[in-house]
Design a protein that fits this description.
- This protein is an alpha+beta fold.
- The chain contains two helices and five strands.
- The protein has a five-stranded antiparallel sheet with strand order 4-3-2-1-5, with no helix packed on it.
């Protein structure tokens, strides 16, 4: 075994390893850019205005969640439109206001339905 040849071979292996590491870093960087573009393209902008009523998504972990229980709470009223899609909302019950991300809100539809128009008696079957 020649020490000089072994040293040169080891240096060549280290250079190849550095090259492989650089390529991996570049591929990872390109992958992250591609995923960020894909994610940003699918973000829906909310056109919420001050004074509108909204529902808030409750994302807290619950030990015994009900299957039929809604994960939306509210209604809340928008008080202020802060920067970067953040909204300040206020509940009608307590009167406290707090800031939330706009992606956790959806417009509250407070239409009331007339039961007389919607109901059909079961005894009248064809």
């Amino acid at each position: 075994m020649d020490e000089k040849r072994a040293g040169e071979k080891r240096l060549l292996q280290l250079e190849e390893l550095e090259e492989f590491r650089g390529n991996t870093y570049e591929n990872h960087k390109l992958y992250k850019e591609k995923i960020k573009k894909w994610h940003d393209k699918r973000i829906r902008n909310r056109d919420l205005k001050i004074g509108q009523k909204v529902l808030l998504f409750n994302s807290r972990l619950r030990l015994f969640p009900g299957k039929l229980k809604s994960s939306w709470t509210g209604p809340y009223q928008i008080i202020n439109d802060a920067v970067n899609g953040t909204f300040e909302i206020q509940g009608s019950e307590h009167g406290r206001s707090f800031k939330v991300n706009g992606h956790r809100l959806k417009l509250y539809n407070d239409e009331t339905f007339d039961e007389k128009e919607e109901s059909t008696p079961l005894s009248e079957t064809p």
